[in-house]
Amino acid sequence: MGVKLFERQGRRVRLSEPGAYLLPLAKDLLRRSNRLEEMMHSLRGEVVGHLVVGCSTTTGKYLLPPLMARFIEWHPGVQATVRVGSRNRVLELLSSQKVNLAFASALIPRRGIRYHRFIDDEVVLIAPSDHPWIERDAIQPDELLGERFILREPGSGTHQAIERALARDDISVDELHAVMTLGNSEAIALAVEQGIGVGFVPKLAASRCIRLGNIAIVPIANMHMSYTIWMAENTMQPATAAHLHFIKLMKAEGFLQEEDGNMEQITAR
Predict the structure, then answer these.
(1) pTM of the model
(2) Which domains does the chain have, with CATH numbers?
(3) How far is CA 264 from CA 17, 236, 268, in A?
(4) Which of 18, 128, 178, 225 could make an S-S bridge to 3, C-beta 3.0–4.6 Å?
């Protein structure tokens, strides 16, 4: 190319300035080459290549690994990867075509991104197994105001579901006595298990601790909390056979429910 791509510093070799400019372009060419190879296999009816899924939700972290394990068992020619990150991060990866699909708990408008309803996730109140609420059939919403809470960060799908449910009883999340804010639901379940307080988590995230008998679900009278997990696709990214067959598997497993023959979908512009 007429320029030095590497330079030596003592015993170390590093990219030169031209090399640093070239590296992202080279990575993009490699990704496009791999995509082209996968598409050629797809045209021959072969399910091979690399399926990369971005995930930002607690429930997705629990549901996707067994789904993907089943998928590669059926299609051993596919290498599957789950990339976990914030909601914005996984959607950025989808927009830049670095993942095939993304799962998120909110509809964020992005050019060319189409959302499909994946599943509605239940949010429950959990307490330590020796908490007085455990013995009761249900508590009243106003009793929440006298308890210590471990909460998710504002903006998370769980936090938004709590806000909506409490608002129906004229209660603000800010009125709860929050002693701790944590960035994931598994950490909240563990903190509740230690007796630090009570908390709201997706039901699936608390399942292990519930099975062990260390925490339990506390029903709240006339209150139901849930939020939707969305599967997102990039309409400007050609779908590979692996991508399409994974969607087929999810539908066969009861996700991506269809109405009138079509998946419920929203295209964000």
Answers:
(1) 0.75
(2) 19-119+228-268 (3.40.190.10), 122-227 (3.40.190.10)
(3) 48, 19, 13
(4) 18
